Amino acid sequence: MVPVLQVENLRVHFFLDEGVVRAVDGVSFSLEAGKTLGIVGESGSGKSVIGLSILSIVPAPGRIVDGRILLRVDGTGSEPSQVDLVKLNPSGPEARALRGHDVAMIFQEPMNSFSPVHSIGSQIMEALKLHTDVSRHEARNRAIEMLRKVGIPQPERRIDVYPHELSGGMRQRAMIAMALVCNPRILIADEPTTALDVTVQAQILDLLRSLQEEFGMAILFISHNLGVIAEISHDVLVVYFGRVMEHAPVDVLFSEALHPYTRALLKSVPGIDTPVRNYLATIEGTLPDPSTQIPGCPFFGRCTECEGLTICRDEPYELTKVADHHYLACPRLCIRS
Amino acid sequence: MSQSEPLLQVVDLKKHFPIHRGVFRKVVGAVRAVDGVSFSMDPGDTLGIVGESGCGKTTVARMIMAAYRPTSGEIWFHPSNGEPRVDLAQIGHAAMRSIRPHIQMVFQDPFASLNPRMTVRQILAEPLVVNKVCRGRELEDRVRELVELVGLKIQHLNRYPHAFSGGQRQRISIARALALYPRLIVADEPTSALDVSVQAQIVNLCLEIQDRLGLAYLFISHDLGLVRHFSRKIVIMYVGKVVEQALAQPLFARPLHPYTEALLSNVPSTRPSRSTHKIILRGDPADPINPPSGCPFHPRCLYAQTVCAEVVPPLEEVEPGHLAACHFADTLHLMGCDALGCVI
Amino acid sequence: MTLDQGKEAKYLNASTRQLVWWRYQKHTLAMIGLWLIGGLYVTALFCEFLAPYSTETRFYDAIYAPPSTIRIFDQQGRLHRPFVYGLTLRIDRESHQISYEEDTTEPRPIRVFVRGDPYAFWGMWSANIHLFGVEAPAKIFLFGTDRMGRDMFSRCVYGCRISLSIGMFGVFLSLVLGLVLGGVSGYLGGWADGLIQRIIEVIRCFPSIPLWMGLSAAMPQHWPPLKVYFVITIILSFVGWTDLARVVRGKLIALRGEEFVLAARFAGAGHARIIFRHLIPSFTSHIIVTVTLAIPGMILAETALSFLGIGLRPPVTSLGVLLKEAQNVTTIALYPWLLIPVAFVIMIVLSFNFVGDGLRDAVDPYSR
User: Fold this and answer.
1) Chain C contact for B77, CB < 8 A?
2) Is the CB of B159 less than 8 angstroms away from the CB of C13?
3) Which of A259, A286, B292, B309 has its Cβ near the most Cβ atoms within 10 Å?
4) What's the distance, Cα to Cα, between the start and end of chain C in Å?
5) In the listed set C125, C149, C173, which residue is the last one of a domain according to the structure?
6) Do residue A199 and residue B266 have CB atoms under 8 angstroms apart?
7) Are residues C230 and C87 in the same domain?
8) How close A280 gets to chain B, by Cα (Å)?
9) Strand runs (DSSP E) across chain B, as ranges?
10) Cβ contact (<8 Å) for B197 and A224?
11) Is the pLDDT of residue C367 over 60?
């Protein structure tokens, strides 16, 4: 079974005056239809850049320097083939056709993806007309239908409102409608609920789940919020300093995480099992300087489990399979065992 | 003065921001940002105010800091033992200067709350200098003491804020708030701009400082888990009004307001083994410019009845120490954390 | 590694001003602009010394003389130190065309620190040393001469002094007006704000050239040049302050709500401390940017006014006054060097714009 999207050894570097920042440094994963892969990481982990590179919209001075992003293409023949998105010209017709049609993206702040001077309906119809051959009337009907599906009340009326007239939650729904109107196979969601209130966040997560059931698209859900990731994902990728630390099914990751970083992250969130007013577990120190090159584990120095073994920092290592669907990048656990 | 005198007592506090329109700036309406909020807290206590954006929690904080003058209501603050309490809602500019040292604030955005053109030393010295607390050698000693109290180093004193990460900046902000030995620190979402691992560091620091200095926190947050971890008493706000108020433990075990129940169920869980029962509310939080009639929560409430749209439910003591503003607080059997399976 | 740490420590301990300067240095055009402006202001300061002649020195035998050619080889191909040849004036009897012939018999070496026209340096110390020159009776005209046989190079150098200083003084006056009125408008708000904003709008509605014309026409013809100079400056800044006032007001309103200003208020700081310690340092950099971008506007305005004959008048020599001489198409066709002041104007305006752009990019050291 060929996955909908397969990312292999992706490296995205930003060439700054201060040096080369390895925002994404050898990330691999695959995305199955109808499943959600959560990417969780703190600020500066490069999680957003992964999403941007799939759409080939990495901002300058960033560049994909290595790796393949293979999108499955179901041709008329029996065997599906794969097209490497990295090899396509980012502004060429093929890449533009893929963007929006096969791969769509939603962001934290919907105001940035909507133009303030056009009604949301005309923007959704625009997206539809770019990728499919429909009449104006048909496009309008489909836009209304899509707005209804994302739970916007009175879609026949709301189709003509402007983005600023909607509340944050409604705007996020409208953006989801715009992203899904061409029925993409992959939806990249970059912190789509971060700016929302808890009750609205729950609504949007619920909506994404039911839309996934209906349309069967694969979702790449990027967030810093462990709870949100736990709610929506089937598989989770933990990234740190541009690298994958751990990759496991959601219940495995949240109950029996192996990587010291994942474990420390989980422990630092207060929950029902943390005694009230007790000190929370913390991760001491800060991220390494983004332009340094670390051959081994970038978590070295903050890790409480490696006992200062410099081998962790200096020896290169790889993401290793430790159990079914469970991959781990911890030199202490992977090299020594 | 008796020991039981509350440190801060807020009585029926209201703040309506007028909305002006047109050339002559005619008042056409009002944002009812805070619309009748009451609570009180004791010295050394921790009170958490929880609510979604636009519920007025930040406005309450600003009024306590005397940055806004309330439309009506009282804010009684007890500066120190042996001194009479003062009403911050009516206080004059000059009188407030002697009160300021006792109430300090920690802000949400660690990048906006420090002047980028001042060194850490200047930032920490400012409250001491303007209040003429100390000078010279003594000032330097106090600044060093502060910087160490929040876990930074003396060599950081000469640096400017740009050299620090978000978490370190928040430490500086806390040190500045501590400079005058306040009795109350108002912390407005102090960790929401930080990464989880750093958030834990700041939470620990706040707890440690409270244990050492015995000050009180008014902790404002939208994160229920954090508030539960931090506060003894919790106030839940919805569109300018208090909907529920209780000690943390009973509030989480058996909420009395449907909004609290929904909030609890909507907190994303990091323990997927617990299957959470989700209550998905309809619609968006109400608009404070044009709040619904009756109970502001009724359009979204699962249990709403006709009376809810007509009569504003008063905040009443349903159980000892447990207040709720719901017509059916004593008849509804709402689910608490355990029944919902939520993890906070 | 240690080098790296050293670099990092330098960054960590840097003040905002240092960060701005480091960022500014990366902007090549802005650095070039800065050097040019620096050079021009030095020129303007020392123009008596740098110009070989005074503005009013006339050479009746060198009317409309073309720029001198500086040579190092003579007719025989021998190497000399830089020199010029003397010029002989010839007038065509029929067309009255002026032409010049070089007298190649004797090279006239260019010397430094020569004695020449006496002058009073900054109006105070009399001297007669010039940076360069040739010995009389030979003359050196780097940019040629005008219709009265005055050295264009010297006049340009003096013109820069007037034009640059008018830019500076004008902007300074605008700044004072803008700071005070914009500050009142932004800090007090309400009624005062509304009034000042309306005044700004009215002033900005006027078409500027007719307004200047009207104002300068009101000026009595018999006023001495110095007085005219100051009045023109005031007229220019009267129109120019509105932009600055708006920047100051906008910045103040934005800063007033900043959390660090609130924090200072909550710490008990009074109005004076908040204004001088927090607000002003935070917007000086933005003011400098606006001022830098406003100076070329002033200079252009002065040039335009003088060109139209309603600004400065001879004997004051500004770049605009110089350009007035080049109003005639025939003159330009025959004596193109009279347009050299335009090059100065362009250079000044471009340099200021580059510096302003560089500063604007650099003042916010936190934006990435």
Assistant:
1) no
2) yes
3) A259
4) 25
5) C149
6) yes
7) no
8) 6
9) 8-21, 26-41, 46-50, 72-77, 86-87, 103-106, 184-188, 216-221, 233-238, 241-247, 316-319, 322-324
10) no
11) no
Distance CA C154, CA C133 (A): 11
Tokens read off for A151: 């739970």
Angle at A246 between CA A241 and CA A247, to 5 degrees: 120
**Which of the listed CATH numbers 3.50.50.60, 3.40.50.720, 3.40.50.300, 3.30.70.141 matches domain B8-237?**
3.40.50.300
A174 vs A121: CA distance, rounded Å? 9
Q: Does A265 touch chain B (CB under 8 A)?
A: yes
pTM for the model stands at 0.82
Q: Are C275 and C261 in contact (CB under 8 A)?
A: no
Question: Quick one: angle between helices A260-267 and B196-213, nearest 10?
Answer: 50
% of residues, chain B, pLDDT over 70: 96
Q: CA distances (Å), A132 to each of A97, A139, A142, C364, in order?
A: 10, 9, 12, 45
Classify each residue of C271-283 as buried b or exposed e, where b means 16 or more C-beta atoms within 10 Å of its C-beta.
eebbeebbbbebb
Question: C339 and C249 in one domain?
Answer: yes
Greater model confidence, B43 or C339: B43
Q: At CA B235, angle to CA B230 and CA B240, rounded to 5?
A: 135
C186 and C106 both lie in a single domain: no
pLDDT for B122 equals 92
| Dist. CA C290–CA C353, nearest whole Å | 10
Assign A183 a pLDDT band (cuts: 50, 70, 90): confident
User: Do C220 and C286 reside in the same domain of the chain?
Assistant: yes
Render pLDDT for B270-316 as a digit per residue (tens, 0 to 9).
Answer: 776 666 788 888 888 888 888 889 999 999 998 999 999 999 999 99
- Print the domain residue range for C109: 56-149
